Amino acid sequence: MRHGSALLTRYLRFGRASPYISSRPLRWSSSSTRTWSTPLAKIIGEAIEATGPISIAYYMRQCLTSPTGGYYTTERAAHDQFGKHGDFITSPDISQIFGELVGIWVVTEWMAQGRKSSGVQLVELGPGRGTLMDDLLRTLCQFKKFGSAVDGVYLVEASHSLREVQRKLLCGDNAFEKTDSTGWMAKSKYMSNSDPIKVYWVEDTQLLPNPRDGTPTPFFVAHEFFDALPIHAFTSVPPASQPASTLLMPDGSPAARQPSSAKEPQWRELLVSVAARTLPSDKEQQTEFQLTTAKASNPASLVIPESSSRYKRLKSTPGSTIEVSPEGQKVSQDIARRIGGTKDRQPSGAGLIIDYGPLSTVPISSLRGIQNHQRVSPFASPGRVDLSADVDFTALAEAALSTSPNVEVYGPVEQGPFLQTMGIEPRAQQLLKGIQDADRRKLIESGYKRLIESAGGGMGKTYKAMAIVPESGGKRPPVGFGGTVVS
Asked: What is the pTM of this model?
């Protein structure tokens, strides 16, 4: 979820080989005599040796959220993933202005949709330490009518340790209370109609309140959330490289026979396998896992790349590589479904997605590891390295539009212009007034400039913003996407 300004798609370009795809013959080794870098690496390695290579999606899911050693689900002494002393830094950590402007964006959408007096739900996906939601609530509660319309805050968070960090920041000494419908609840330090705004935690968007219950107006914020969702990767292979073969199921069992002579290129999934052990002096390969191309089609390669015409067009060119996140598309569909309403409820609410990835092209070979603010192999120290991949914004838009006819999508646009339109520079100047301390002034100035910097792969260019809003026939684009404030 996440990584500051050192992002970028420097891996495979079209027609080049990934640095994580080994050209060596794979040599299997017994895990009983092998020393693994982490306990999770041992679990993954033994699973691969028992059943065969696994998908990148499965590998990412284990590395990030496994209950036995996952990066976000395992507490480690003196380790905080976020901030200057962690592995990466996010926009809310850099400047409070980021969260304030996200709050302003939410208010402008609420105003444009008629200023609902109740039923407003604030939903953040992957809230990290809670910094963004804290800045957002502080800003929103200055708009008294909006604050009184908030029925609850919902944080979609799978990590127990991060839920505790979020509770302390947003709710202070107020303890968790178990709820039957969602999971956990605590009363926040922010007020609505003289009562504390309640914060609810769920582990999945599908556990959010049923949109058919009442007349909710949900506002979704997803900042560096989609980049952490698992991906599948596929490469197109020419017909000549396809001998008669057996279609394999995920467990390695045969499912069906394939034709012996395909007449067009086919997709093959890139899978994670155990890398051969090397001598300490061998600098070429020091990770325990590597990517290998599946020898035959599998269910994923037959279905997932056929879901969009964008992928189908690339299939005809052998060597094309694509990355697809079915989980990301599923979440986008859920957001659209909740905003789009039902036959008994008018469309209302909005979703703001801010993440990194290309404006319109399909991501390729963007899987990365981040540790101590440095880019490292995604196959190093599983469970102790953050993993992410570029977001396919077009795929998210297609998923949303295919789910509900009552929503429309704007963007993506680069973060720099988006924040400038939202007023980042005037807000920075306002904060600087009256501040005499040179270090404090420097922190404010460098922070907001870092968020909008476009040169050299800066955050203002690398990060993108996209909005999902109720259908208006293109007559009312949101603020930041070509629209103006509706009073």
From this structure: 0.87
